[in-house]
Amino acid sequence: MADRNDIDFTYSLTDRVIRLSLGELADFSGAKYDGDFSLSLEQAQRRKHDYVAEQIGIGPGRRLLDLGCGWGPLLAYIRERGGVGVGVTLSSAQLEACRRHGLDVHLHDAREVTRERFGAFDAVASLGAFEHFCSPEDFEAGRQEQIYSDLFANVAGLLPDAGRFYLQTMVFGRNMIPRDQIDTEALRALPPKGSDAWLIALLGRQFPGSWLPFGKEQVAACAQPHFRLVSAVSGRLDYIETISQWNARIGARSFKKSLLKLRLLPRWLTSADFRLAFTSGVSANQLCFQRELLDHYRLVFEKCGSPEASAGVA
Length: 314
Ligand SMILES: C[S@@+](CC[C@H](N)C(=O)[O-])C[C@H]1O[C@@H](n2cnc3c(N)ncnc32)[C@H](O)[C@@H]1O
Description:
Layout: H1 4-12, H2 15-22, H3 41-56, E1 63-67, H4 73-80, E2 84-89, H5 92-100, E3 104-107, H6 115-118, E4 123-127, H7 136-140, H8 144-158, E5 164-172, H9 184-189, H10 196-206, H11 215-223, E6 227-234, H12 236-251, H13 255-263, H14 265-270, H15 272-279, H16 284-290, E7 294-303, H17 307-313
Parallel strand pairs: 1-2, 1-4, 2-3, 4-5
Antiparallel strand pairs: 5-7, 6-7
The structure holds S-adenosylmethionine (SAM).
């Protein structure tokens, strides 16, 4: 799993630049254009939240959990709709930013949220965090599926029968290097520039401690026996557009942003990983989506009733 240091590297170092570029409640997961790229980024992010609301039910009287809540965009939407939202993140900067906006957010591992600690929920959402739950080391050690299964079991423990879990995640795509040919040592050493493996290695620098599921099938298999998959929609093309919009906003010059970037200069000078992660001049995740090394899914799960309950209904 990506630990707190890894998550701080990805999200806390750049916290102020991201908030200045994308707004205080920065929405940092793929937006929902449904192929209509005349929409603004903000409209497409709103459409995503409306979709989540439609799928899991967001509104007055509903208590919802956001696993990996980022800067709190979904929690703010839940509040706006009269619901009660609780979020967890591993980024200290995100925690502070969310709390400044009066959001109920905790520095807590999403994989270990229990009913005893947080109470019960009507529904759970997680957008863009599942990508961090398994590390390359976990994958190498054969722990990937167990990690996902444990997460689903935990989430099931928070929900009533038929409760829903909206899960939005990147996955490895159909052109990913075959599983049995992946050489994680070579990825660490940096493969030839421009190759598929090089792009995957760059992603590894930007998101240390993170490794992706092999397609939505692997995720759906791990969700059993607790959840059935209700729907799965690819958001790959929408994500390519989202990243273009992010890059334009983050790249737009401003005096304040230049000062913030200057403060990161010591990191840039002393850390090769930092340079590769943030200043390689290549948008690795966008290219990976274009080459279909990556795909992206909006998955809706429904908790299966206990066998006793089903027997009772029958
Ligand atoms: C790409 S951001 C997505 C943020 C937000 N869901 C959104 O849509 O804007 C990933 C988030 O997952 C969180 N995260 C990753 N691993 C986590 C873990 N094990 N426990 C809690 N949060 C985690 C990060 O802290 C970050 O907030």
